[in-house]
Amino acid sequence: MPKKNKQTILDNVKNMRYVDTLSLSMRTFKTRPMRTALTILGVSVGIGAVLFLVSFGYGLQETVLNNITTADALLSLDVSSGKSDVIQLNQDSIDKITNLPNVTEVSPVVALPSQITLKEFTADTTLYTIKPSFLNLSGLVPFRGTFFKADNNGNNQKQVVISSAMAQLFNIDPTDIVGQQINITTFVPRTDSDGQNQVDVIEQTSPFTIVGVVDDERSSLTYVPADVLENITYSTYVGAKVKVSNSEAMTSVREQIINMGFLVSVLQDTIDQVKKIFSIVQVVLGLFGLIALTVSAIGMFNTMTVMLLERTNEIGIMRSIGVTRKDVRKLFIFEAMIMGFLGGLGGVLLGYLGGFLANIGINVLAHYFGGQALDLFSSPTWFIVLIILFSTIIGLLTGIFPAQRAAKINPLDALRYK
């Protein structure tokens, strides 16, 4: 061993404080920089793999949840009468629900079979007559265009929002169909004085303007404000969206509406199920990342063992001048923890870089195939802190065995070791 290194050891080991131990632990970065850097890089790759995969799971979850719901929808109940002919969702029922405590808004909906005509083309559709708030309470967001806009006096205008499936029926791109005018013919069922079922064909006298498109490729739907339709009356609703004041009141409001005899479903139930599924996905992805991390930990353990063999003579000198077994053990553990901590920081950088590059690649492909740009990677702050702490603990665990071996070395045997 060079005289300079031996003198450094003698100067530091006379009073082995934590600062001294930390200083000695950092010497390995100077004496074996390449090996130490590669060991830290190995840990970084393992940590980066865990962060990349788990962040991908979180990103997928947020993307799915953001596409199926809004803040208002999470506070909404979906009320219907089901198939019951006895209990009907009529205006009297709507008034009772509106007067319940913690209910801030009720938005009923009527579904009517209809036809819409755009230029020379005519297509069948289900016409939903709604309050404008129904769309937000349903968790819908405009795929193209906007939702209904009131005039300067606050009155609804003759506007409609259609599904993307409706645009496809007319063979028009959803972007190009916004602003087009359509005519609506509605078929309103009724019962005459003899108890016979009749259908009234009601054609709206003036056209409606398409202002928005919602992303729905399966159903041909049209939404229109209920108060702008002409000559249409109805006594029952197919359903209603009920918004409550806060999430804590949702259970009590739900029970009260169920006691009235109505069916109630909550979007939050679906959200909870989705979160459970993605929790499993995140665990599975994390396990794949742990495989890479396990390989990195084995490499780090091997490095610490080699360092022990190389420094046997050095340990003998330290022990002969009064350094205790505890201090030797502490020295090796500090070195392992430092490498684990730096490996965690490097892993976070690699994980973020990998997610950033992967996200760019995915969005380039999405743009090429006509899709929307998405951010598929998300890393909660608590997970970043946890993974750095976890990396440091791995360093601690891989350093315990070499530290124990180093502490048990006989000083005389160590001095004779070559």
TrEMBL record:
This is ABC transporter permease. The chain crosses the membrane at residues 36-60, 283-310, 331-362, 382-401. Keywords: Cell membrane, Membrane, Transmembrane, Transmembrane helix. One of its GO terms (cellular component) is plasma membrane. Belongs to the ABC-4 integral membrane protein family. It comes from the Bacteria. Pfam families: FtsX, MacB_PCD. Residues 287-411 form the ABC3 transporter permease C-terminal domain. The keyword Heme does not apply. The keyword Glycoprotein does not apply. Its main location: membrane. It is found in: Cell membrane. Residues 36-258 form the MacB-like periplasmic core domain. One of its GO terms (molecular function) is transmembrane transporter activity. Coiled coil: none annotated. It is a multi-pass membrane protein.
